[in-house]
Write a structure and sequence with these properties.
This protein is an alpha+beta fold and 175 residues long. The chain has one helix at residues 2-34; strands at residues 47-50, 54-62, 67-74, 80-88, 94-95, 98-99, 109-111, 123-128, 138-153, 156-173. The strands form 3 sheets. It has a 5-stranded antiparallel sheet with strand order 1-10-9-4-7, with no helix packed on it. The protein has a 3-stranded antiparallel sheet with strand order 2-3-8, with no helix packed on it. The longest helix has 33 residues, at 2-34. It is elongated.
Length: 175
């Protein structure tokens, strides 16, 4: 009978030792979850993904004025003689596939109507967005362009457009 007592005592000591270790690990994990260490939004970085044929780099959302800065460009092989850019937030209504926003009113957009946008030559933009938003807020949306270009038919240059295109999609963290 003495052998059974020692085995029971060993089993209890085993359970108590590992039980305390598991309890400490559970408390630490609970505290980390409570503090937001495992919150996915803390891992969000600013991303600007260009649509095919378009470039978008270095996106920044400035929380103090609510503006978005980014470098955008087009590599379509066509030089745009005019280009107006706007930020389109989620929930914006669309008509015939085009967002219902003003492409021609400053300061809600950036206008390159006098210089256009040469294919393969990116430009830096500052666009009005949703802000100002608190630091750490995640802002999503898209950059759209309204553009025109020139074609030559029978030796006569003609301006065609305006055309509308989504240049990029954005996920930005306010900084």
């Amino acid at each position: 009978m003495a052998g059974h007592t020692h085995r029971a005592q060993s089993a209890m000591e085993y359970l108590m030792t590992y039980g305390w270790a598991i309890l400490v690990i559970a408390v630490v994990l609970g505290a980390l979850f409570f503090l937001g260490v495992f919150n996915g939004s803390n891992l969000t970085t600013s991303v600007c993904t260009g649509s095919p044929g378009y470039l978008c780099n270095n996106p920044v959302y400035e929380h103090t004025d609510g503006n978005i800065s980014a470098t955008v460009g087009q590599e379509t092989g066509t030089n745009w003689i005019s280009a107006n850019f706007v930020f389109v937030s989620p929930g914006t209504p669309y008509v015939n596939g085009v967002p219902s926003v003003s492409f021609n009113s400053f300061p809600s957009n950036t206008i390159y109507s006098t210089q256009g946008l040469t294919s393969g030559s990116p430009v830096s933009l500052t666009l009005a967005a949703t802000g100002p938003e608190p630091i750490g807020t995640v802002i999503t949306g898209a950059i759209w362009a309204q553009y025109s270009y020139t074609i030559t038919e029978a030796g006569v240059p003609q301006t065609v457009g305006p055309y509308y295109v989504q240049v990029s999609s954005l996920t930005l963290k306010s900084s």
